[in-house]
Fold:
Amino acid sequence: MTDAPALPPRRVYTNPGIVGHPTLSTVVVVVAGFYGVFELVRAWQQNFQSQMDILFGVFFVGGGIYGFNKTWTDNRDTVLTLDVDDATRRADLALWRPFQPKKIATSLDALTGWRYLV
Structure:
C-alpha cells in the first residue's frame, strides 16, 4: 500500500483588484508631496514673494502626507491571497504592500478576526 501523493495548497481567497489601486494611489500622493516641496523651495528662492507658491506647497505637502497615511492605514492589512494546506493545517497569506506583498505562513487555527469585505 502506497501513500497518496500530497496535494498542493489550495487557493481559498484571491483579491484581484487590490494590487494596483493602492500602489497607484501611493505613487500619486508621493508625487504630490514632492511637488509641494518643489513649490516651497521655489517660494523660498524667490524670498516668499508669491503667496500662491507657499499655499500650493503647503497644501500639496499636507495632502501628500494625509493621502499616504490614509492609503497605508486602510490597505496595509488587506489580504491579497490565502492558500490553505489541509493536510498540515497551514495557511499562507499575502498582505498588500506598495511594491511587494508581505508573505505570512501560519497555522490555520491562528487565523482569527479575519475581516472579509464585500
